[in-house]
Amino acid sequence: MKVANEDLIKLYGEMWLIRLFEKRLSDLFAKGVLPGFIHLGIGQEAFMAGTHYNIKSGDSVGTSHREHGLLLGLGISPNALMAELYGKATGSNKGKGGSMHACSPKNGALGCNGILGDAQTIINGYAFSHKFRNDGNIAITIFGDGAANRGDVHEGMNLASVLNLPTVFIIVNNGYGISMSSKDSSNIQDLSARAQSYGMPGISVDGNDVLAVIEATGEAFKRTREGGGPCVLEFKTYRHQGHFEGDPVTYRPKEELDMWMKKDPIKRLETIILEKGLASPEKLLEVKNEQIAIIDAAQKFAEESPYPDISEVYTDVYFELEGGALK
Ligand SMILES: Cc1ncc(C[n+]2csc(CCOP(=O)(O)OP(=O)(O)O)c2C)c(N)n1
Ligand SMILES: [Mg+2]
């Protein structure tokens, strides 16, 4: 799939936005400013930006607990996401969802499910709805190498296959489920091989190469959109931070982190852009600085926003139908 030169600069900006937004969250969390718990996807930007590149309006996308960056791409503005993480009333979910449950269903951003594996069955409901309406949209579910070992995931894959649903299962293999290496939780080299058991295609891709991610999602999404049925994509990547902020990360060797730092997805795209002569180092610095300005403004917006009023404690708990009946 050919990616236009100007798109490479846009992807570079998007990847910096994700990384710097998350780095800001890391700093704010360390200062005790953010309530709740956060899991950061620093190092995994290529799979987020590359997947976003091929998502179309109307698609349903279930993210995991580590994809603030994809939520930004799916239409939650930096201001709304930052305010949500501060627990403020101006947040994407009025400050009541926080990191794990920030979502924007009208933009197809379904958010995350706290129970690993459950979302991979639920996603088939969205896929069924797309198939039933014949709207050309697909349902995408994103989950980790750890979650991939849950039984529910296999039920979800089997059902998607049997019903020939437009479901794309994206496994983000970042090497660990909390402190357990994915090498210890599975005996196969490529988690995508599991697709074969359900009669659907599956491929494993270098998830730190944004162009490889675009190529893979481009082909897979097109096939699924056109009625080809479900598939599995595995993106091999690495999280630079711990599982959660505050994790001392005593379980992984330094050499492993050093090796993955050499495969930093942003550096790799930067090298491609510079080698192609698409932008100067000064221009790329400008692009990066633009993202910092966006994040500064988002932080200011969140800080200056009010907390939800106490009278709102019981609102938004249930979804209300028109006429007041509970769904
Ligand atoms: C059913 C279930 N078991 C355990 C947990 C606790 N838990 C939260 S995140 C996590 C690790 C997930 O690892 P992975 O799926 O690889 O995603 P990553 O955190 O690496 O992005 C675990 C075990 C949970 N949320 N749900
Ligand atoms: Mg993992």
From TrEMBL:
Cofactor(s) listed: thiamine diphosphate
Q: Which Gene3D superfamilies match?
A: 3.40.50.970
Q: Where would one find the signal peptide in this protein?
A: none
Q: Which keywords label this protein?
A: Oxidoreductase, Pyruvate, Thiamine pyrophosphate
Provide the E.C. number(s) assigned to this enzyme: 1.2.4.1
* InterPro entries attached to this UniProt entry: DH_E1 (IPR001017), PDH_E1_Alpha_Subunit (IPR050642), THDP-binding (IPR029061)
Pinpoint the Dehydrogenase E1 component domain residues: 15-310
Q: Which CDD domains match?
A: TPP_E1_PDC_ADC_BCADC (cd02000)
Q: Name the SUPFAM superfamilies for this protein.
A: Thiamin diphosphate-binding fold (THDP-binding) (SSF52518)
Any one GO molecular function term: pyruvate dehydrogenase (acetyl-transferring) activity
Q: Which PANTHER family match?
A: PYRUVATE DEHYDROGENASE E1 COMPONENT SUBUNIT ALPHA, PYRUVATE DEHYDROGENASE E1 COMPONENT, ALPHA SUBUNIT BACTERIAL AND ORGANELLAR
Name by which UniProt lists this protein? Pyruvate dehydrogenase E1 component alpha subunit
